[in-house]
C-alpha cells in the first residue's frame, strides 16, 4: 500500500510532467506556425527563435520576466510588420497563421515561467529537506549533543565573537595590540573562550563488562550532567565515542576549573541496575583537558589541539 508520502511524491511528479508537456506543446505549435508561414514569410524562423528565447527567459527568471520578454517580442514582431506594410509597402496581408505569434510569445513566456517557478519550488523544498537531514547528522542520535563537525563550527563562531568584543574595545580606545596577543591580565571576560574536554577512561572495558545498554545509559547520564553543571549558552558536544566537549564563552580557566570539578564530582560514580535488579554503584575514572583562547590558540583547531594535549597528560 502506497503511503501518504509516496502519494505526494507521485502527485508532484505528475504535476511536473504536465508542465513539461505544456511547454513541449507550445513549442510544437510554434514549429507548425513556422512551417506553414515559411513560404510567404522567409524570416519566420527568427520569430520561432525569439519564441524559444522567451520561453527560456521565463524558465530561468520566472513568469514575470517571461511575460516582460514576451511583451518585447510582441512589440518587435508588430513593429516589423508595421514597417513592412507602411514603409516597405509590402502588400502581402498578414495571415491568421502569422497572427498566432501575437499569442505564442506571451504563451511561451508564461509557460516557461510556470515551469521554471515550479522546478525552483521543488528544488528549494528538496534543499530544505536535505538541509534538515544534514542538521540531524550534526547531532548525536543517542545524546542529542552536537557532533565533532558541528563542534568546530561552534567553537570558531565563539572565537570570532570574542575577537569582535576586543575590536570594539580597541576602537573605543580602551585596548591596544591585537586579540591574538592578549594576556590573561589584559583580556576582558567577554574576550576569552575556554574549551573543556573530558572522557571516560577505560570505556571499552566498561562496555565489555556491563554491555551496550548500560554504556548508553552512562552516556546519557553524562549528557544530563553536562546540562546540569553548565550554562544554557555553553556549547555541548560529543566528539568521540566516549569523549565530550564544552565550549565555555566568557570563561577564564579558573571558572572553567570549577565546571570541571563539578563534572568530576557528579561523575565519580555511576548508579546502574545489575542483573539481580539491584542498583549498583560503579566508580568512574574521568580525564580532563582545558585550553583558553586567545592565550593557547587563535583558531578552533589550535585551541582544541591544546586541550587535547592536556587531556593526554591527564592520567585520571
UniProtKB/TrEMBL annotation:
Source organism superkingdom: Bacteria
InterPro entries: GGDEF_dom, Nucleotide_cyclase, Rev_trsase/Diguanyl_cyclase
Record's keyword terms, sorted: Membrane, Transmembrane, Transmembrane helix
Transmembrane segments: 20-37, 43-60, 67-87, 99-116
Keyword NAD: no
One Pfam family here: GGDEF
UniProt key word Coiled coil: no
SUPFAM superfamilies xrefs: Nucleotide cyclase
Annotated ranges, domain GGDEF: 191-316
SMART domains for the chain: GGDEF
The protein's name: Diguanylate cyclase (GGDEF)-like protein
